Amino acid sequence: MTATDPALTALAQSWHALSLLHGRIEAHIERALQAGHGLSVREYSLLDVLSRQHDGEGGHLQMKQVADAVVLSQSATTRLVTRLEDRGLLTRYLCPTDRRGIYTNVTDVGLTLLEKARPTNEAALREALDEAAENPELTPLVRTVEALRTPA
After folding, report:
1. How far apart are CA 58 and CA 61, in angstroms?
2. What's this model's pTM, rounded to 2 decimal places?
3. Rounded Cα gap, residues 14 and 136, in angstroms
4. Integer Cα distance of 76 and 80 in angstroms
5. Which has the closest alpha carbon to 51: 42, 61, 39, 41?
């Protein structure tokens, strides 16, 4: 295969369309969350992931698992946790069974903000998908996203 191979060109165009869809959705949600709740998409995602933790076996995520879930490096995730902790939205504590481990929980203030922001996130996502569906290049991707029903 060469760089001008039609299969590679089609693959690159498909990747471009997927990247374009992601960027448009994220930017639309970012504007809505910032305007309505003072949250970035990453902050919202972190609060959402951490709010799904539970007590019991495997219920709390280690920082690497959190970083993977919000698609950030561990260092970027730690900085994000620190910012949200400074705002009173998160709290950290030592793992009771492994003193080297540190867990992060969403505070009551953080849970309240997340619950207020969730409808904004969902509405902005719907708006962004509807807008993207008007672009013929993005329509098949939008339909695929809408057809997915499995949690990440």
Report:
1. 7
2. 0.86
3. 12
4. 6
5. 61
- What type of residue is 126? R
pLDDT on residue 42: 96
The helix, strand and coil proportions of the chain, stated in percent and rounded to the nearest 5, come to 65, 5, 30
65 touches 81 (CB < 8 A)? no
Rounded CA separation 113/108 (Å) = 9
Confidence category of residue 151, pLDDT binned at 50, 70, 90? low
pLDDT of 70-100, one tens digit each?
999 999 999 999 999 999 999 998 877 777 7
Q: Are 50 and 81 in contact (CB under 8 A)?
A: no
Report whether 84 contacts 104 (CB < 8 A). Answer: no
Neighbour tally for 10: CB within 10 Å: 10
What single-letter DSSP state applies at residue 7? H
State the DSSP string of 45-106: HHHHHHHT--SSTT-S--HHHHHHHHT--HHHHHHHHHHHHHTTSEEEEE-SS-TT-EEEEE
Q: Count how many residues are written for the chain.
A: 152
